[in-house]
Amino acid sequence: MSPGLDVLRASYRNSSLKLELLTPGKIYELKLDRLLTSNVFKKGHKIRVQISGAFFPHFSRNLQTGESEISSSKTQIGRIRIHHDKEHSSSVTLPVIPR
Q1: How far, rounded to the nearest angstrom, does the alpha carbon of residue 10 sit from its chain's CA centroid?
Q2: Tens digit of each residue's pLDDT (9 = 90 or more) over 68-82
Q3: Dihedral sign (CA 59, 54, 13, 7)
Q4: How far, CA to CA in Å, does 72 sit from each of 23, 35, 75, 77?
Q5: Is 12 helix (H, G, I), strand (E, B) or coil?
Q6: pLDDT tens across 48-61, in order?
Q7: 63 burial via Cβ count (<10 Å: 0-12, 13-18, 19+)
Q8: How far is residue 30's CA from residue 11's CA, in Å, rounded to a whole number?
Q9: CB-based contacts of 83: which residues, under 8 Å, 6+ apart?
């Protein structure tokens, strides 16, 4: 795994125990605030943010249906939109810790 891997299944965005399905077309704010480590970024270093509908086999399958991956085999295509406009800004904020 990457040292800064932070995974959030959107249907568990408010609690890791309670399933809350998303409504198609509705915009949700998702916060990835469980980073596992820190890193020193030197001049010229770059970061990458990867957004995906699934991360199998590292994590359980995501059927994109809201059904349990244990008891269902039905799948559907998941569509992800990143909004970045005046009303819905998207950002990545990295804290800076002084030396």
Answers
A1: 7
A2: 777 888 888 888 888
A3: positive
A4: 21, 31, 8, 15
A5: helix
A6: 887 887 777 777 77
A7: middle
A8: 10
A9: 27, 90
Backbone angles phi, psi at 10, to 5 degrees: -55, -30
Query: 14: which 2 tokens?
Result: 């408010």
Nearest in space to 7 (alpha carbons), one of 46, 59, 57, 48: 59
Q: What is the DSSP letter of 70?
A: T
53, two tokens = 């509908």
The total number of residues written for the chain in this structure: 99
Residue 97 amino acid letter: I
Structure token digits, residue 74: 């039905």
Pick the closest to residue 32 from 18, 12, 17 (CA basis): 12
Rounded to whole angstroms, the Cα distance separating 21 from 67 reads 10
CB 40 within 8 A of CB 52: no
The answer to pTM > 0.70 is no
